[in-house]
Amino acid sequence: MKTVQEPRPAGQGIRQSMSDLHTWVGLLLGWVLYAMFLTGTVAYFKDELSQWMRPELAHQTELPDQAVVAQRIADELGTVAPGSPQWSMRLPDGRNNSVYAFWRTATGTPGQRGFGEANFDPATGQKVTARDTLGGDFFYRFHFQFHYMPVIWGRWIAGVAAMFMLVAIVSGVITHKKIFVDFFTFRWGKGQRSWLDAHNAVSVFGLPFHFMITYTGLVTLMALYMPWGEQAAFKTPAERQQLNAELSAFIQPGKPSGQAAPLASVEAMVRQAQERWGRDNVGRVTATHPGDAAARVAVARGEAGRVSMSPQYLEFEGTTGRLLAVHEGVGAAAETRGVLYALHLGRFSDSVTRWLYFLVSLAGTAMVGTGLVMWIVKRRQKLPDPERPHVGFHIVERLNIVTIAGLSVAMTGFLWANRLLPQDLVARANWEIHVFFIVWLLTLAHAVLRPAKKAWVEQLWAATALLALLPILNAVTTQRPLWHSLVEGDWVFAGTDLMCWVLAGLHAALAIRTARHRPKLRSTRKPSREPVTTSATLRKGEA
Amino acid sequence: MISVAGRVRNVGPLLSRIAAALFGGYALAALASVAVLALPMSKPQAVLTGMLASFAIYAGAVIWVFAVRSALRAWTGLLVVAAPLLLAAWSVW
After folding, report:
1. Where are the transmembrane segments (chain B) (predicted)?
2. Sign of the CA dihedral running A252, A256, A257, A263
3. What pTM value is reported for the model?
């Protein structure tokens, strides 16, 4: 019996050891990585998805003047969050038709920090009355911190997975002898070889991207993963603040004076920022201690027009509106970090670049998916009895189904829940998320109960059906059916609906290929074993 | 049948390598991220440089651990790199 590989004898080639490393590192967190990749891919369109999930908010045909909107929301925040030591709003832009704001709540006990958040209608300044949903932000947040657990745990899991990914990429490249020749090689219908070629094609095609996205993903949360330098270097909060100023345009509230004084015109402050960066290129307005004589306001530059997340903002004295400082540059390392961060998020993208991000990121998802499937395909040939695989094989096989096919079903289920859950349901946004996980659990149960191949095919067809019917559900349950959005030129809605059909087509193609697939139980290179294969297939067919 | 001792002999080096990769690699990366502070640059920039580079060092350490011929060599390599880093880190902590 030789089911587990013996430890590598000394002197074995580096390619073999890197191949083993690649296989096991890739497998161990492969399922987590697949989910991170797919939700992250979709999150490139999170703002559009959020708009689609709040159909009550009208299609934004023309971008409102950000200065006027900022004043309107600042006034509203004065009543929604009175006495707040800090609020911050993201102004509407080409991709957002609402203003997202969060604020620290005024609490009596110092050190205790509560937060409030809401979306506001830029036209009225009132809280958005649309259905309660997390929108595309659910996929975005799930992508790096998962759900049903403290966010710190989730972020650590994501970090470990990303580190495994980085090692898998590097070891995968070393494993690869003929990286370019293999890229142009494709052997269709050859079982394991085809899977290997597919895996190579999607991996090599996007290799610079996959490497970049993995490394920059680690960079986004590097202060959490590698806090040691910071702890060694800075002993006081003031010193630490020096570092924060290099990273973020959020100004921190100092001590309030205790003297009440109204906030000067926020509109005038945003006007100055518009003169500097352009009419539609103001990103965020943050105020500390608004209503107090010590108030400060920071108006930050938008994300379009430069590939960096390093802070650029104008700082104003809150009560007079006097420009205190222009923050436009940070140190070299901070700027490097800002560029890497921006490369990961891709928020600087115009729509063509964003589609490229989406496609190559989808290739990354396929890289992880084909890798997971290959593990199974490779081992199935070596099984002593394919009808009764060992338990490890069984677990990997089922987890692959749930992760790859099941996740598509669950993610689409989330969008169905957005359209079907009653508007007045308590904690409705949470219920959309519960539905996502309930559907995912159901696919797990299904994958365990059904034969593997049937489970694959059925779940892929389920995803196909849910995706294909979603635009129809949208047409029935909202005032914004596809034909309407096409006529209106509402590409957020039309694009989402049409994309559902494209993805339905993709899943249907996968379902058909999987259904037609006949696994080769023995290597075809040994024709003497052929009769065994045929009889095994026959037996399977009779059963 | 393989005896328990034989099993340990077989699996031991592999487990040792896994530990070297997971924990040794992280320790080395963390150490490097502190050692950077000894470089002649401003503190915030040095801190960020250390953080940015740490993941490359971690990944490199993991590759090293599995690329070399024996677990002993893997650990030795990590320690050889760690020694000067420790000196540098010591000077700034």
Report:
1. 18-39, 46-66, 72-92
2. positive
3. 0.89
